[in-house]
Amino acid sequence: MNKKLLLALSGGVDSSVSAELLIKRGYFVSGVVMLMSDGQEKTAALAREASRQLGIRLYELDLRKEFKSTIIDYFISEYLAGRTPSPCVKCNPEIKFKQLLSLAESEGFDYIATGHYARVQRIGRAYRLAVARDLSKDQSYMLAGLDGSVLSRLVLPLGELTKSEVRELAKSTGLSSWDAPDSQENCFIPSGDYREYISQHAKASPPGDIISPEGSVCGRHSGIYSYTIGQRKGLGVALGRPAFVSKIDPENALVYLSYDKKTTDRVRLQSFRESYPGAVSQGMSCLCRLRSTGKLLKAKLSLLEEGGAELLLDSPTPSVSSGQAGVVYSVDDIPAVLGMGTVEDIQS
Asked: Which CATH number is 78's domain given?
């Protein structure tokens, strides 16, 4: 008897090719499209068309209420507090995969699957997430919060494929999504302009001063949410030479600039948790990723008494805004997620 599998289906090329591959492997596949916010009618329509083309059943979940209270409110509040959130890292364990697994269990599915670029490894009795073969598309950072209860039932058919191979497979099998554009980072912001989104959906953010590298007021801003640490473009001031955001003071609505892009070789992580028991140890060598599109950086890990962790980087890196996820990886040939936390305020 074929194993039943529930696939998160968006109608895009990645999830559609995943369905094709899983069906060929002998799984009995059904799809589910999850509506996270208003404006995703196109996603639902594409998923319906994909399920029709693939010949599979499609479930539809309306998660807009849960997504609003858990992700959108968090996203806006973090920016208004001068931090840079990681909405996908939070959404995957708390909304998407939680709902995916719940539906699978209630409907009698053996496994769940998505079109993410990552791999699942089994180490003894533990399961862990590893990077994709195509590092340029690797999404292990976004999935770093998934625990063993999810990973033990998760199938990621694209982990060993490159994006170009996925598109070629889609084209060769006649899928209409073969040349569809890649999905955007924030699914709930169709325009891609998070600043405009916050200005339309949040309470008024107080304007404030922009402070030059010399310490004087050099301009005004309409809200600190428009700025992130290390930002160079769109500052709204002209100083005659490039300048970068070096500090954000949310209490006084101040944005500080520097002529030099700040770097750091130490990063502290709040609420650090290992991916499975024994995954990390004091003083171990590791790799880390401090932003979704960041490179894997060499570091040493120190565990702190208060439940946090500190990464001592082998080489300085541009400072990362507080609020971002910091993900720790193994130094194996195929790096795997060992733990994660939230970057503390490292502005100076």
From this structure: 3.40.50.620
Domain that holds residue 315: 263-343
Angle CA(310)–CA(315)–CA(316) in degrees, nearest 5?
75
Instruction: Give me the residue label for tokens 């069906």.
Output: 23
Give the chain's mean pLDDT. 93
pLDDT score recorded for residue 348: 44
The Cα–Cα gap between 102 and 61 comes to: 11
SS3 336: strand
pTM more than 0.85: yes
Same domain, 166 and 59: yes
| 99 and 217 belong to one structural domain | no
Long-range Cβ contact pairs of 184-189 (< 8 A, separation 24 or more): 185/88, 185/292, 186/75, 186/87, 186/88, 187/36, 187/37, 187/40, 187/43, 188/36, 188/37, 188/39, 188/40, 188/67, 188/71, 188/72
pLDDT in tens, 182-204: 776 778 888 888 989 998 888 87
What confidence score (pLDDT) does residue 269 get? 96
Residues of the chain above pLDDT 90, percent: 77
For residue 183, being part of any structural domain is answered with no
Clarify whether residues 288 and 321 are in a common domain.
Answer: yes
- How does pLDDT run across 202-242, given as a tens digit for each residue? 887 899 999 999 999 999 999 999 999 989 998 989 899 99
- Active site (catalytic) residues: 91, 187
Distance between CA atoms of residues 209 and 167, nearest Å? 48
Strand bridging mode 337-343 / 263-274: antiparallel
Nearest to 182, CA basis, from 146, 141, 136, 144: 136
Same domain? For 247 and 280 the reply is no
Instruction: Classify residue 73: in a domain, yes or no.
Output: yes
Per-residue pLDDT for 290 more than 80?
A: yes
Q: E strand or H helix at 166, and its extent? A: helix 163-172
Whether residues 56 and 167 share a domain: the answer is yes
